[in-house]
Design brief:
3 helices, 67 residues, phosphatidylinositol kinase activity, single chain, 0% strand
């Protein structure tokens, strides 16, 4: 049986996944550190790629390496 407080509570879930297409090396680590230092917003925002750009990159990877 639910309490009245729980029935009015709103929940939000964020789903993400790791980029398996990028080799994490010194160069990539340097880029990430630089973006975080230069960013005036939340540091995690610098690591997000727009879905349309990621989709294109993902399909290019599949074409080059899997097909």
């Amino acid at each position: 049986m639910r309490s009245p407080e729980l029935s009015t509570r709103r929940e939000s879930y964020n789903i993400g996944f790791a980029d398996i297409l990028t080799h994490y090396n010194r160069r990539k680590k340097g880029v990430i550190l630089t973006k975080r230092r230069l960013s005036t917003s939340d540091a995690d925002e610098t690591l997000i790629v727009r879905p349309d750009l990621y989709a294109r990159r993902f399909l290019d990877f599949i074409d080059k390496h899997c097909i």
